[in-house]
Fold this sequence. Notes:
This protein is of the alpha/beta class. Helix content is 36%, strand content 26%. The protein has helices spanning 29-45, 58-62, 73-82, 95-98, 102-114, 135-145, 164-172, 176-183, 199-204, 288-308, 310-321; strands spanning 2-4, 17-21, 48-55, 87-92, 116-122, 148-152, 156-157, 160-161, 187-192, 209-212, 223-231, 234-243, 254-259, 270-281. It has a six-stranded parallel sheet, sandwiched between helices. The chain has a six-stranded antiparallel sheet with strand order 9-14-11-12-13-10. A two-stranded antiparallel sheet has the order 7-8. Strand 11 and strand 12 (234-243) form a beta hairpin. Helix 7 packs antiparallel against helix 8. The longest helix is centred in the last third of the chain and has 21 residues, at 288-308. The protein starts with a strand and ends with a helix.
Amino acid sequence: MKIIRDLNEITEPFPNACVTIGNFDGVHLGHQLLFEEVVQRAARCGGTSVAMTFDPHPLQILRPDGIKLISTCDQKAELIEHAGLDVLVIIPFSMKFAGISADFFVDEILLQTIGVKELVIGYDYAFGKGRGGNIDFLKNQGEEKGFSVTVVEAHYENDMLVSSTKVRELVSEGRMADARVLLGRYYQIRGEVQLGKQRGGKEIGFPTANLHIDREDLITKMGVYVCQVICEGKCYGGVLNIGVNPTFGEERLVAETHIFDFDQDIYGKPIKVNLLRFLRGEQKFSGIAELSTQIAKDVEQAKEILIQQQKELTISCGEQFNR
């Protein structure tokens, strides 16, 4: 998949461009239906399948309190590539860009720059200044200017509307199984392993790989999770604690992962952590001995769950390395 981060890089319109537009935060099952429709339509007409998105997310610019993102831009691009698109156009979003009209977007960007022949959008999509580019507007523009518009209707799984808003809600509540249903995969955090207090191995008996969590990011319910860790081409089971270490009176938010059957030095190296199931909330213990005893119980419970889910975890690992 070709990734374009500046519209000026596009020197001529794409052949028979079949296009979808959206923020695609999380690349959930609803987004995947859009991509599937675009890829199929492009294949039928021998055209180019194109996804257009924005970075940063428009609400990070337009809302004073921003928005909690399910995925980073890099993760989003990785997932879109896995969906089989030919081209991903990432438009830098700014207040200036927010001020352009829906007519300008259609004429100058969709038609002149991209060369849209078929447009596929979600049931609730709108764009441009004042969200003037709604579905009726796009259908009228398509009839007038020679491109078709297909609207993909709302999608439900287990009576839940598949949407980024719903996924954020589920993640913040620690409902990882339900989040997985809407995403079509496990919810994942990722980053470089950082040097922590080094209490895990020396004092507590359970060494951890630590990831910094920004309070502006989407934060799961604080506590302990069964997890799957992807590191240097291999998958491992583990337990993850997201919180502030109340036993030690700290306030810095951190994700600490004890990786099973693992003793490598991975400081500064990237890892991915899939959150499988919430085990318990974060607790304040009387001291290291009580904390260590509880972690041992968490590890035992997590290993039992991982054995029960071994088949689907093996599939999940294969999917990670095929991206």
